[in-house]
Each structure stands twice: as structure tokens, then as C-alpha cells.
Design a protein that fits this description.
The chain is of the alpha+beta class and 147 residues long. It has a single domain, classed as Cytidine Deaminase, domain 2. It contains 4 helices and 5 strands. A 5-stranded mixed sheet has the order 2-1-3-4-5. A hairpin with a 5-residue loop joins β4 and β5.
Length: 147
């Protein structure tokens, strides 16, 4: 699967978002080490704190499909999804909570997971590793000294 293919799946997923409050649709595609790809989209709620990010939606699907330790790489795209295609020119990176959840998968897999951060139109792409997005993160490896 090429970067462009994975980003397209993320962009398509964003069009399935439920974002009536922010009007900002985000999609996420996760490729597993076995080649399986799952996706998710953000889902807002009138009680704002009950919303779900696209990355968490996709990580849940990944856990069910091949396990968090099987995550190879992730693509995220976001923008205006009110039409028939996702638009926007700025690359979207995962929020802090999603970075923490991706770090969990990275530490379980022993891989510094790559994240492709794309604009809504897919033209601008930034490539990051989770270690760069959440340096000094707290994850399963941080609990090695617990009883």
C-alpha cells in the first residue's frame, strides 16, 4: 500500500464523520503489519466531551482486526467534509490524547510508528514518528517498575 493509497482511505473515512458542531471532519486509516487496513472517523456529540476522535475510532477497529501491537503506520486527514470530497490545505496532526493512544500501540509493537498527516485535499503531507509528536511520553514501558 502506497502512502497515497493510505491517505485516500483516511480522506474517504473523513467523509463519514459526524461533525455537526465543529464542521471539521477527520479520518484515520491504519495499516497493520499483515497488510490489513482499517479506518475510522470523528464523531461529535452535543455533550462535547463525549466525542470520539478519528484516531481512537480507527485504533479500536485495529485492535479488533489485528491487535494494537500489529499497527504498522497511520494516516490522518481532516478538513471540510460537508461536500462530496474532503477539502482543506493544512495538514492535520493527531491531538494530544490521540498521540498518547498511538504511543500505547507503538510501545506494544516495539515500533516508532509513522504517521502521515495530510490536508483535506491530500496535497500537503507531513511525515512524523510518534516519538517526535509525543517526546517523553508515558506508556506501558513507563509502568515496568509497578508491582
Amino acid at each position: 500500500m502506497t502512502d497515497k493509497d493510505l491517505i485516500k482511505i483516511a480522506r474517504d473515512a473523513a467523509l463519514k464523520a459526524y461533525a455537526p458542531y465543529s464542521h471539521f471532519s477527520v479520518g484515520c486509516a491504519i495499516e497493520g503489519v499483515d497488510g490489513t487496513v482499517v479506518s475510522g472517523a470523528n464523531m461529535e456529540n452535543s455533550c462535547y466531551r463525549l466525542g470520539v476522535c478519528a484516531e481512537l475510532s480507527a485504533l479500536t477497529a485495529a485492535q479488533a482486526a489485528f491487535g494494537l501491537a500489529g499497527v504498522r503506520r497511520i494516516a490522518v486527514a481532516g478538513g471540510d467534509g460537508s461536500g462530496t470530497s474532503l477539502v482543506g490545505s493544512s495538514p492535520v496532526t493527531p491531538c494530544g490524547g490521540c498521540r498518547q493512544a498511538i504511543l500505547e500501540a507503538a510501545q506494544l509493537s516495539g515500533t516508532d510508528i509513522e504517521i502521515l498527516c495530510a490536508s483535506g485535499d491530500g496535497m500537503a503531507v507531513e511525515r512524523h514518528r510518534i516519538s517526535a509528536l509525543i517526546p517523553h511520553g508515558f506508556g506501558p514501558a513507563s509502568l515496568k517498575d509497578s508491582a
